[in-house]
Design brief:
The complex is a heterodimer of chains A (about 140) and B (about 210).
Chain A lengths: L3 H27 L11 H6 L5 E2 L2 E2 H21 L4 H29 L4 H19 L1 H8 L1
Antiparallel strand pairs in A: 1-2
Helix pairs in contact in A: 1-3, 1-5, 3-4, 4-5
Chain B lengths: L2 H27 L2 H4 E5 L8 E3 L6 E7 L4 H16 L4 E7 L7 H12 L3 H10 L1 H4 L6 H10 L4 H9 L4 H13 L7 E4 L2 E3 L6 H12 L1
Parallel strand pairs in B: 3-4
Antiparallel strand pairs in B: 1-6, 2-4, 3-5, 5-6
Helix pairs in contact in B: 4-5, 4-8
Chain lengths: ~140, ~210
């Protein structure tokens, strides 16, 4: 376990990293003719697949919304670190993020059969986000009691 | 307000402004010179499905895949080009199968082409893409489109059963690879490969090319 303020700082940093990845992918999805894939060649296959959008909105746009929410929650928690409601919202949002990441990874591996480097990176960041929130859990409850 | 909150707030604000500004700047900065490649490549214009006369001043070759969502978006621009420049632009559709399952769609479109309705079928395939692209066997879906376009269903079925277009598809794929086409849609304007970031630029490039002559 780590102190809740350190956990919150980690959440903030990972949120900004995720935001940068999602914003880059959003640009590549929206304006570029081909996606720059740092490793492998799956990025274009995934962008061109029917799964590139969710509820009519591109996946990177959902990523931007997710990481922005996580960053804002971390910002609010830096003001009141013992706030249980904010902590629960962080847990909920991070779990939804990882859950969605698992779903997208499943689609990549079994439906599209291609792997996009940036999607994997974003998935890893979302896992680190959830871990950072969870690692501060014990601390906040100890402080709260 | 705590100092840490203020600092994190400033960092978040700067990050959001930089990312939004970066996306805006990058989306605007691509000039037409960047869109057009420098080299003119040799393309076999005798192959592919054509819209527009052979005498057209501009030959726009598209390597496309019926199952690719970006190609479906491009199709609406191409439709507009077909109606705006019926005599000046010849659009040549070539197949580059990124998705293995789109092979059946290609065969249906080619079989429709034998009955003079390739473009009508291509339009319908793109329009209904979300309805068939996730089906494990879209044959009956395609046959509905065949009936909708009043095509001879038996001829289409025969062509599909005999895999009549395999050689044609393989030839398109081979030429695409030799031209270093790695994604769809890829366009060549009078033999020059385009690196389009926005399909709207197609119209500008066509106008520019027409004004040259």
């Amino acid at each position: 376990m780590i102190p809740s303020n350190l956990s919150n700082r980690l959440v903030f940093i990972f949120s900004l990293l995720g935001l940068a990845v999602a914003a880059f992918l959003f640009y590549e999805y929206t304006y570029a003719n081909s996606v720059y894939c740092l490793v492998g060649t799956g990025c274009n296959i995934i962008r061109n697949s029917p799964y590139a959008n969710f509820l009519g909105i591109s996946i990177p746009a959902w990523g931007i919304v997710f990481y922005l929410i996580m960053a804002i929650l971390a910002l609010l928690r830096s003001h009141s670190s013992e706030n249980q409601f904010l902590f629960r919202m962080q847990i909920l949002a991070a779990t939804v993020g990882v859950g969605f990441g698992i779903y997208l990874t499943y689609l990549e591996l079994f439906a599209i059969k291609a792997v996009c480097f940036w999607c994997v990176l974003s998935f890893i960041i979302s896992i680190l986000l959830l871990l950072s929130v969870i690692l501060g859990k014990k601390n906040i409850y100890e402080n709260g009691n | 307000m705590k100092t840490e909150t203020r600092i994190l707030g400033i960092i978040l604000f700067i990050t959001v402004v930089l990312l939004a500004g970066g996306i805006f700047f990058l989306s605007k900065q691509q000039s037409l010179q960047e869109v057009k490649g420098t080299a003119t490549v040799q393309i076999d214009y005798s192959k592919g499905q054509k819209a527009g006369p052979d005498s057209a001043k501009i030959k726009l070759v598209e390597f496309s895949d019926f199952q690719c969502s970006a190609c479906a978006v491009a199709e609406s621009y191409l439709k507009k080009i077909r109606s705006t420049y019926p005599d000046d632009v010849q659009i040549i559709y070539r197949h580059l199968l990124i998705h293995e399952s789109s092979k059946l769609a290609v065969s249906v479109a080619e079989a429709a082409g034998q009955q003079g309705k390739f473009w009508e079928m291509a339009d319908r395939l793109f329009e209904t893409q979300s309805g068939w692209s996730q089906l494990s066997d879209p044959t009956s879906f395609f046959l509905n489109l065949v009936r909708e376009l009043n095509l001879d269903e038996n001829k289409i079925k025969k062509a599909l059963d005999e895999d009549e277009f395999k050689v044609k598809i393989d030839a398109d794929m081979a030429e695409g690879q030799s031209l270093d086409v790695t994604y769809t849609p890829t366009f060549f304007l009078n033999g020059v490969k385009l690196n389009l970031h926005r399909f709207e630029d197609l119209d500008t490039l066509i106008e520019e090319e027409l004004n040259k002559k």
